[in-house]
């Protein structure tokens, strides 16, 4: 199985990259946050343990791994959008599953991320699309998720970066190019 992790600020364009990889290379996209919100919506035992994520908090590694194992099917190629969110989740993933084939960091400035989140909130029904939660998620990204990228590099994971501030088409092409290079090796 080929596994690609997509990391970046909330609103950076990770979902856009996941969609492009699905369309061009047949990757099955999984948004780990959406999987968690679905567990909450369905009021499962796991969902009851995850309710706090609506405030922008990061799930502990054992719950994140449980969500992945429960929801991710054995496909040949998958993307994990928004995972891992911190070093503890990365460590749990590496210990329980192994190294991802590629981690793509979608780079945008904090200002661009906030603008995109505010625009998304205008048309969203997500409970966590509000300014207070955005600030919590931005802070969590800076303090926990971004350091996770260095951790993955230190552990020998293949990490690459793409510019999330270019046009959607250019960003998709850049991601597709990196994936095709990986697959064709």
UniProtKB/TrEMBL annotation:
Question: Which SUPFAM superfamilies does the protein's record reference?
Answer: P-loop containing nucleoside triphosphate hydrolases
Output the InterPro entries linked to this UniProt entry: Adenylat/UMP-CMP_kin, P-loop_NTPase
Please provide an example of a Pfam family that matches this protein in its UniProt record.
ADK
UniProt keyword annotations, A-Z: Kinase, Nucleotide-binding, Transferase
State the Gene Ontology BP annotations: nucleobase-containing compound metabolic process
Q: Which domain of life is it from?
A: Eukaryota
Which GO molecular function, any one, fits this protein according to its record? Answer: nucleobase-containing compound kinase activity
Q: Which family does it belong to?
A: Belongs to the adenylate kinase family.
HAMAP family to which the protein is assigned, alphabetical:
Adenylate_kinase_Adk
Recorded protein name is Adenylate kinase 3
Organism, by scientific name, is: Spironucleus salmonicida
- Taxonomic placement: Eukaryota, Metamonada, Diplomonadida, Hexamitidae, Hexamitinae
